[in-house]
Description:
membrane, endoplasmic reticulum, Mem_transp_PIN-like, Na+/H+ antiporter like fold, mainly alpha
Amino acid sequence: MGFWSLLEVASMPNLQMLLISALGALMATNYLNLLSPDARRSMNKIVFVVFSPSLVFTSLAKSVTLQDLISWWFMPVNIGLTFLFGGILGWIAVKILRPEPHLEGLIIATCSAGNLGNLLLILVPAICKEDRNPFGDPNVCASVGFSYVSLSMSLGGIFIWTHTYHLIRSSATKYKAMNAAEESSKKPNMDLDANESSNLLDRGEEDVAITMSTTKSPRDDTNDRTIESESIGSDGKLVTQSASARSTLSGILHQILEEILAPPTLGAIIGLIFGAITWLKNLIIGESAPLRFIQDSLKLLGDGTIPCMTLILGGNLTQGLRKASLRPLVILAVICVRYVILPAVGIGIIKAAAQFGFLAADPLYHFVLMIQYTLPPAMAIGTMTQLFDVAQEECSVLFLWTYVVAAISLTVWSTVFMWILS
């Protein structure tokens, strides 16, 4: 198939996504007010808890086998490489541009963490459903593509809620420290005046304190030593430090456990189990399966995932129309990393992995691995900025421009990837 024919195949899904996203943006405006922030949050919860797990489960349970899982071992490695190279390039951009300290984590996060779930769920099946796609029968391609994307979403979520979560939390810490320093620098004169006015009282209180300390009983001294021994451990380190370390480790493990038990990830895990174990698959998959109504019901729910996700995406991007103190060079740097450098790196990595025999033979699998390097930033980054109350407006502006450019970038790079693989 020629390059221009492949370009037409690649452009159709992106045009569909643009149209539905524009509708979502229009519905979120004050003119219609059908997708208000509260409505988007409620709708997003339904997608997260009901629609997305149903879609992930049905696709994995139907098309995945144990042999498939073994042959797909390179996918978590590939996702880790997208975060590694994206993080390095984001760090270089931060060192060159020198943005405000609280924006450093956001820039590195948007360069490293791609939308490995929601956007792929829209893009890959839509390409498969085109009659002239280079990946074979549209129905088989869509089913297998859903399996690849579901696994990508599950693995990507773990990376995002560990690596990216830490970056945004560090930015929030810097932001709060910076604000505290500014506030303390604004009132040194007030503190001096207060100290001068209280000097006379302090001198009187010091005299009383000296008199009381000279009459201190041995019992009081014993109590002080007891309190001190309880505050200091046997190794000479403060107990509060070790408790803080345990608390931090417990928080990280709790966050990872929450991500593993999140509805989409849990749906993926259960779907993989049903797909890998033949007798479980036969219970719900197939015309003679006794519990096939479960699969049919879940598929019906899963069909609502993609349109709802796309409408929410369009509605959320309207937040980027606000004015924010974000330099154009920062936006340009993120766009260059995500849509110019990383895709070229991805082609080299996937071609090398294929040469060494690390990849399954399916060209659609290669395509999904390549396109993981080309995606716009993960929407979960916006959730994290809201959670820690840091750089929310800057994040919205970055999302607006990166997703607008993604419509062109995904079309071009999808065409290049299919041309390479066909």
